[in-house]
């Protein structure tokens, strides 16, 4: 996960954001070239040296080989320059060495470069949670050479990112895969604490989830975990006949999630059965029957009583969401506001 932003999104500043050109990646040569002869014809690599288990940084300085253009940009301007150069060179494959935050930042900047015509992508999961890689079935120890071999063999999986943009059109869109508001913000903060304690991936998710449930259940009804936040939601053209949730609501919500992922860490299924498309979950505040509901909800149960108890699942290609509090997109915090959340252009990811 990147502890900073690499794009200028002044309308959606990160909480305690860095300066407009700041990216906490150490200075490094902008590009080197290397790859086995069997690699795809044109390959671009974005490497984040600050990712938890980055595996390609050393290659840039010690093992140059022809075939791959590699870069470790330090600022949003450098990232855009690199992606623009990749587009001009018409790369066939974009490899991203980093976690979910790195993927989010690259996709956000690349959206203005490639529009609806993207190269194939591959993710080397070197972050702390790597939810996208888990969904794609990418091994956590996947190497660059293995990704290039998989690209040569032609295996791909399609995923569309979640696109978040202000409804007033003041700024560009940000792209990621897991959006959360309400209690999800606090749970993410807990997960980041577990990272500092040395817990990563599913262990961190499990610890944060358990602590969030405990804070909610044992807290007072007026406590911050139970009282929720006001959210105004309007789904557009519901696309799946899940529970009979209202397409529009204006109420206090304990938690709101939206994602296009089909598998989540630890095998949890808060959206129900695995399926493509943009899926949402809203939980009324204060949450009712929580101890009875948490197991079935995370296990993917679609029992009707969950809807009656205030656990609402709705699939829709887009929705409008007004938030009085912050939200999280792939680990980073953004401010309250009036947003449109939609399913983006499907992208083809190379998989084993």
TrEMBL record:
It holds the Pfam family DAGK_cat. PROSITE patterns: DAGK. Gene3D superfamilies: Probable inorganic polyphosphate/atp-NAD kinase, domain 1 (3.40.50.10330). Residues 92-171 form the DAGKc domain. InterPro entries: ATP-NAD_kinase_N, Diacylglycerol_kinase_cat_dom, NAD/diacylglycerol_kinase_sf. GO terms for molecular function: kinase activity. Keywords: Kinase, Transferase. This is Diacylglycerol kinase.
């Amino acid at each position: 996960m990147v502890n900073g932003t690499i794009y200028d999104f002044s309308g959606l500043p990160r909480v305690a954001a860095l300066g407009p050109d700041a990216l906490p990646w150490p200075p490094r040569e902008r590009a080197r070239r290397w790859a086995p002869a069997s690699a795809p014809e044109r390959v671009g690599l974005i490497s984040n040296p600050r990712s938890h288990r980055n595996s390609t940084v050393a290659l840039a300085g010690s093992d140059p080989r022809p075939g791959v253009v590699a870069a470790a940009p330090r600022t949003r301007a450098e990232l855009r320059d690199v992606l623009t150069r990749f587009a001009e060179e018409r790369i066939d494959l974009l490899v991203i060495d980093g976690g979910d935050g790195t993927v989010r930042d690259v996709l956000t900047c690349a959206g203005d470069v490639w529009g609806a015509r993207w190269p194939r992508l591959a993710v080397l999961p070197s972050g702390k949670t790597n939810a996208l890689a888990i969904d794609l079935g990418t091994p956590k120890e996947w190497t660059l050479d293995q990704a290039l071999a998989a690209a040569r063999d032609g295996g791909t999986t399609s995923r569309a990112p979640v696109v978040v943009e202000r409804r007033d059109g003041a700024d560009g869109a940000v792209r990621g895969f897991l959006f959360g508001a309400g209690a999800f913000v606090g749970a993410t903060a807990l997960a980041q604490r577990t990272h500092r304690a040395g817990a990563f991936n599913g262990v961190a998710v499990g610890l944060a989830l358990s602590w969030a449930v405990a804070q909610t259940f044992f807290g007072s009804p007026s406590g911050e975990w139970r009282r929720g936040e006001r959210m105004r939601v309007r789904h557009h053209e519901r696309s799946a006949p899940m529970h009979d949730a209202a397409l529009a609501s204006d109420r206090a919500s304990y938690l709101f999630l939206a994602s296009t992922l089909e598998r989540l860490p630890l095998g949890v299924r808060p959206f129900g059965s695995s399926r493509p498309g943009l899926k949402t979950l809203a939980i009324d505040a204060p949450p009712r029957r929580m101890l009875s509901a948490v197991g079935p909800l995370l296990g993917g149960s679609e029992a009707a009583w969950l809807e009656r108890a205030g656990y609402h699942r709705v699939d829709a290609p887009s929705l409008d969401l007004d938030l009085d509090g912050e939200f999280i997109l792939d680990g980073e915090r953004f401010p309250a506001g009036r947003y449109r959340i939609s399913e983006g252009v499907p992208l083809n990811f190379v998989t084993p």
